[in-house]
Amino acid sequence: MTAPARRILIAEDEAMISMMVEDFLDQLGYHVAGVCMTGAQCQTLLDSGQEVDAALLDCNLGDGPVWTIARRLQDQGVPFLFASGDGGHGVPPDLKGAPVLGKPYLIDALERSLAGLFEG
Hints:
Rossmann fold
């Protein structure tokens, strides 16, 4: 019996990037739990009870930094990684332990990063 696909939340405010990530996740066998362009959309999705196994969070969304969402996921025990074009500079100290995937990235880097979230 095959395990169900893990559900990944995408928080990304650039439409072209979010479409690319959706395609990457599909190719890698993941399910997209939702795509959010703002922190408010992320809050709404999480409030809805949608199951999320992990999240890929752009550090800066349309309505500001993603830190509140990251802390909420952390409190819920949901693993996440940041996607950042600046190497994750500016990540608050309490979130510095989260992995950072440098932008731009290719499917193999996303695959390795997500696999790392689910190890251990």
